[in-house]
Amino acid sequence: MSDPKKPYDEPPSTGLATKTRPKTKKPSLYKVLMLNDDYTPMEFVVHALQRFFSKGHDDAVRIMLHVHQRGVGVCGVYTYEVAETKVNQVMDLARQHQHPLQCTIEKE
Ligand code: TYC
To answer: Which residues have CB under 8 Å from 39's CB, separation 6+?
Structure first.
C-alpha cells in the first residue's frame, strides 16, 4: 500500500538513511597579471589597483613597485569571468588616459 502522505514520485522507504551529495566542482581560478611598461605613471597603476582590485593604498603601492621592478605581478586571483572583467576595466581606463598599461590572465 502506498503512503498517502508521500508524493507519487518518491520510491517507498527502505528504512535506510541516505544523504544525497550533489556533485559540485570548484571553479578554476585565474591570476590577473599586470605588466610593466616605461610610460604608465606609477600613480595611475596605484589608482587602478585600488579601484578594480580593492587594494588599500599601501598594498597597491607594494604591488605597483613589484611590477615596476620585476616586470610582472599578481593583482588578484578570480574565477574566469571576474578576472576577464577586471582586465577589461583596467585596459579600458588605461586606454581612456592613453596609457599603454597591459594586464593579462593566467590559469592558476
Ligand atoms: N614603470 C612605470 C614607470 O616608471 C610604472 C609602472 C608600474 C607601469 C607598473 C606599469 O604595471 C605597471 N612610470
So the answer is: 99, 100
Least confident of 4-8, 71-75, 100-104: 4-8
Q: Ligand 1 centre and the CA of 2: distance in Å? A: 73
In tens, the pLDDT along 60-88 reads: 999 999 999 999 999 999 999 999 999 99
CA of 15 to the centre of ligand 1 (A): 67
**8 A C-beta contact, residue 46 and residue 61:** yes
Distance 91 CA to ligand 1 centre (A): 14
Cβ-based burial of 65 (10 A; exposed 0-12, middle 13-18, buried ≥19): middle
